[in-house]
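Run: sequence + adenosine-5'-diphosphate -> complex structure.
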Amino acid sequence: TGTVETLEFQSEARQLLQLMIHSIYSNKDIFLRELVSNASDALDKLRLETYRDKDLRAETENLHIEILLDSEARTLTVRDNGIGMSRDDVVNLIGTIAKSGTADFLRKLKESKESAGQDLIGQFGVGFYSSFMVADKVTLETRRAGTDEGVRWESSGEGTYTIESLADAPQGTSVTLHLKPADDEDHLYDYTSPWKVREIVKRYSDFITWPVQMAKEGTATEEEDDAGGLETVNSMKALWARSKDEVSDEEYHEFYKHISHDWTDPLETVRMQAEGTFEYQALLFLPSRAPVDLFMRDAKRGVQLYVKRVFIMDDCEALMPNYLRFVKGVVDAADLSLNVSREILQQDRQIRAIRRRLEKKILSTVKTMMTEEAEKYATFWQEFGRAVKEGLIDDPENREQILEISSFDSTNHADKPTSLRDYVSRMKDGQEHIYYLTGESRTVIENSPHLEAFRAKGYEVLILTDPVDEMWTESASGFDGKTFQSIAKGEVDLGDETSEEKKAEYEDLLKWMSATLTDTVKEVRLSSRLTTSPSCIVGDAGDLTPTLEKMYRAMGQ
Ligand code: ADP
Ligand code: MG
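>> structure
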C-alpha cells in the first residue's frame, strides 16, 4: 500500500454527486441495479478482451458477481472478478463524467422545477454515483486484469476522493457501501437485510447473464466465503430466448434499463425471431424519451450484438440505420464468428439482411402504434420525429413508409400534427399537390404572404420548421401519387389565371418595376397568390429556400 493522494472531482461530477447525496430520486433500491450492471459489463469486457488478446494474463475461471452483507459494520459490497480498472481508469471513469451532454443536462436540471428533477435524472442515468443515495462513504478496490497493481478509491462524495495503490488486490472490482442509517421516512431500507437485497436483485437483475451470488440463507457471510456457502440469486435466462408469454412487461422493462442505461420504462417492446438459413432473435425497444445526445456527433448508436447468448459488442451501428439510432436492444445471431469485428460487420451480407428486416419491423411497429395507440405515437413522434425524418434523405428505398409514419404541423389545426394520409383525405376537389411551406417557426410561416391565397381557397398547407425539412422536401417526389409543392417557389397554379385584361392593365407598372429592381430580382409578375398583401418575393422552382441558403452560408459554402 502506497501513499494516499487526495484528488478533486471534476466540477460536473461534483454537481451530480450533490444531487445524489441530497437525493431527489425516490426509488433508492436502484443503486444495486447500477452496481450489478457495472459488474456485469466488467465481466463482458473481460471475456471480450481474452478473445482479442490471447496473451492476456487474466483469470477466467469462475467469473461471477458476489454481494456481501455485513449488518454489524453496516456495509454492502458488490464484487466482480471482471476486467477491473487501472489507476488512470479510476481517475477518468469515476472521478470524471465523460458522458456527452452532461453540461447540457446539468443546465436543464438547474432551470427545471423540483418535481421535474426526477424525470431528468431518469433520462440521464447516474450509474455508479447512485451509490451515494444510500451510502455516506464508498470504497472501491480494483485491479485491472493482466496487471499487478491494485487501486483503492474512497470518497464521501463531498468534493474530493482519495486514491492509493494496493499491493495484493484480486482481479476485478469490489465496491463497498458504508450505508446511511435506515430511515423509513426517507424510503431507506435496511440494505444489509439478505431477503431485501435478494428481492432487489430478482426484481432488477434477474436476466443478467453472469451468476449473482450471495451467502446461502442461514450461513454467516464472511466465514463461509466458498462456493459451498454461496448460492446464485438470479435466473440468468436471456429474455430474448424465452417464449413471449413467459416474460412479464416488468422484466422487459428492467432489461431495457440495463442495456440502455436509461432509468425510464421504454415506450414499446419489439420481439423478432427468424429461423432458417440465417437464424437470429431480436429484442428491441423504443425509448419513451430522446437521449440528450440524440443530435450530437459522438452519440452512441445501434443495438447490442450477441452470438449464441455471448455478448459481442455494444452500439453495433451496422444493425440499425442511422435515422433509427435511438432504438435500443439486442440482436442474437446464431451463425457469426465470436471474434467478428465492426469492419467485417459493415460488409457482411447477412448482417445487412438482418438490418433491413429490423428496419422494416420498427417502421411497421410505429405504423401500428399510429393507428391503434395515437397518444403513444404522439409521444414517439414528439421525441424522435426529427431523427426519423433524416431517413427521408438517407434511405430513399423506404421513403414511402417513412412518410407514412411521419406527421407534420399544418394549417388544419393549431397544435395537432397531421399524417400525410389524413392530409390527402382532406384535399379539396381540384387540388393536385401537397402544399408546404418551410421556415423558422410556425409564427413566421403563418404570417407569410405566401399563405394568403391558399387560406382563401381553403387549401391546407404543411408547416415545416425543422432544418431537416428543408432537405427532404428537396428530394421527395411525393406521397400517394401527389407531389410535394412548396408554396414559396415557382408559379403556383391555383386554377384562376390572371386575366389578359389585367395583364394589359398592369403592363406598364410591371415593366417599370422590373427595370427599377433589375439588380435585385429576376422578374416582376402579376400573381394570383396574394389576397391582401400587395406583393411578395418568390423563389424559382429550383432555388434554395431562404433557410437552406442561410444554412449553406453558415457552413461556409
Ligand atoms: P456507465 O455504466 O453508464 O458507463 P457508471 O457511472 O455506472 O456509468 O460507470 C462509469 C464507468 O466506470 C463505467 O463505464 C466503467 O468503465 C467503470 N466501472 C464502473 N464499475 C466498474 C466495475 N465494476 N468494473 C470495471 N469498471 C467499472
Ligand atoms: Mg453503469
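>> summary
The first strand starts at residue 5 and ends at 8. The radius of gyration is 30 Å.
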